[in-house]
Design brief:
Radius of gyration: 17 Å
Number of domains: 2
Strand content: 15-25%
Helix content: 25-40%
Distance between the termini: 26 Å
Order of helices and strands: HEHEHEHEHEHEHHE
Strand order of the largest sheet: 3-2-1-4-5-7-6
CATH class of the largest domain: Alpha Beta
Shape: globular
Structural class: alpha/beta
Number of strands: 7
Number of helices: 8
CATH superfamily of the largest domain: Vaccinia Virus protein VP39
Bound molecules: S-adenosylmethionine
Length: 235
């Protein structure tokens, strides 16, 4: 399993803080112990997963990275029942929340990777994903922590390789320095083309966007931006 390296220190690059928070409720513990193993994306170290084997009838396969409380994943899964969604989060409470939504809404098109999303991306077959969402990722606003942001050149390489040609990636943030940095990195990468044609395309929430819990906290220093990119594989 490849581990992303800090471009500065050469050591492991941590993109998240803690994994545990408040103790889980009884129901959440049951969901984690009994339901998560059934919904876990079955990637084993050193192996490659073709996600179509999980969703044989799916029209498309989507990915969400750092889903937080899971409301975007469950909302999209409900609105798009023909799509299979692979969703990754490391925060236990968030994973338990999504499991609760999956159970309550009887969603059959969600699988969860409860570990570092970069390990999941590294374990997926090339050209297997139609759409990816990275919504309000940890902003790491302090300058000395910004190297922990998930949008790094090596991650963009790995993500591009699992996306199909013509696939779409949505990145959203409400932190100006992250918006600028991410846009620069996506545009510097030959696989990503910014789909925006006018300011309205990135300043206004796209019609299919579902507001997230973190977004609603309005912790950032700008109004949210939504950058949609199209992936191509010719360099
Ligand atoms: C700021 S929160 C936003 C959550 C959600 N997307 C939203 O908008 O409400 C970022 C989330 O990404 C998760 N995260 C950070 N790095 C990650 C990684 N490498 N793999 C999976 N999840 C990660 C964190 O645990 C955190 O819950």
């Amino acid at each position: 399993m490849a581990e992303s390296k800090s471009p500065y220190s050469g050591g492991p690059l941590k993109t998240f803080g803690r994994r545990g928070g408040r103790p889980l409720s009884g129901r959440q513990r049951v969901l984690m112990d009994e339901v998560l193993p059934k919904l876990r994306v079955p990637i084993a170290e050193g192996s490659t997963l073709d996600p179509r084997t999980l969703f044989e009838e799916a029209s498309e396969i989507w990915l969400e990275i750092g889903f937080g409380g899971g409301e975007h994943v469950s909302g999209q899964a409900e609105a798009n029942p023909s799509v299979g969604i692979l969703a990754s989060e490391v925060f236990f409470e968030g994973i338990a929340k999504l499991l609760g939504q999956v159970a309550d809404s009887k969603l059959e098109n969600v699988r969860i990777w409860p570990e570092d999303a970069r390990e999941m991306v590294d374990g997926l077959a090339e050209n297997s994903i139609d759409r990816a969402f990275i919504l309000f990722p940890d902003p790491w606003p302090k300058a000395r922590h910004q190297k922990r942001r998930i949008i790094q050149p090596d991650f963009l390489d790995a993500l591009a390789s699992v996306m199909k040609p013509g696939a779409r990636v949505r990145f959203a943030t409400d932190v100006r320095s992250y918006a600028d940095e991410a846009l620069e990195r996506f545009l510097a990468h030959p696989a990503y083309t910014w789909a925006a044609r006018s300011a309205g395309d990135w300043r206004i929430a796209p019609p299919d966007h579902i507001e997230t819990r973190y977004q609603m906290k309005r912790l950032g220093d700008i109004e949210p931006v939504y950058y949609d990119f199209t992936v191509s594989h010719q360099s």
